[in-house]
Amino acid sequence: MSDVSAIIGRACGEGRSKLLEHEALDLLEAGGIPNPPHALATTEEEAVRAAERVGYPVVLKVVSPDIVHKSDVGGVILGLKSPEAVEKGFRELMGSVKARAPYARVVGALVQWMVPQGLETIIGATRDEMFGGVVAFGLGGVFTEVLRDVSLRVAPLEEGDARAMIGETRASTLLNGFRGMSKRDVNALVSILIKFSKLIASEEEIAEADLNPVIVLEEGRGAYAADARFILKCR
Questions:
Q1: Can you give the pTM of this predicted structure?
Q2: In the chain, helix, strand, coil percent, each to 5?
Q3: Dihedral of CA 159/165/167/170: which sign?
Q4: Boundaries of each ATP-grasp domain copy (predicted)?
Q5: Where exactly are the structural domains of the chain?
Q6: What ranges in 42-142 are assigned the alpha helix state H?
Q7: How far is the C-alpha of 24 from the C-alpha of 1, rounded, in Å?
Q8: Do the bridges between strand 150-154 and strand 206-216 make them parallel or antiparallel, or are there none, so unpaired?
């Protein structure tokens, strides 16, 4: 059994239809999809050790099967640059979540290296009864809802498919250095699209998935899936 199948199998075995945050990132890692170094912490001490390991600055995100919108309950803290900041941030995060979502089961906090600022894109997938896995690509961040500018293809993708998807969206203009902006690492983005599509094609238990955002850095610096969501249809 592959690491990907093991992660999905464990969640299904526990009766869950959604992967937890750290599981989703571990699944991406197992599928060869770049994502920020991360670790799950359950105490302040573990959070500090994790931050030292993944590298500063870090983001803290609450991990809970009962919380959908983390920011609404104070469950995300950005830009922590020292052990002291991580300790304080962990306490504040847990205190805020306990006060604003007392019903929530809290597994811990995800400690994640904070990706530098880049162009935010989104990659998603659904499973169609006729076509199987269908992959979507478009601009991320506020542009996702405003522009609704998305390209679709049936998984798995070849390189030409991935490049065509990107070229069909407004993201293409920004990726190629619009009005003096730096060109972005399109090759890294193409690689993520291909690997993600193969993951969707091979793992039929994945009913829906979103990588949002996929942050594309300057040319030669790569791209990272900074957040991921996987909905399962367990057999």
A1: 0.93
A2: 40, 30, 30
A3: negative
A4: 25-61
A5: 3-113, 119-232
A6: 44-54, 83-100
A7: 17
A8: unpaired
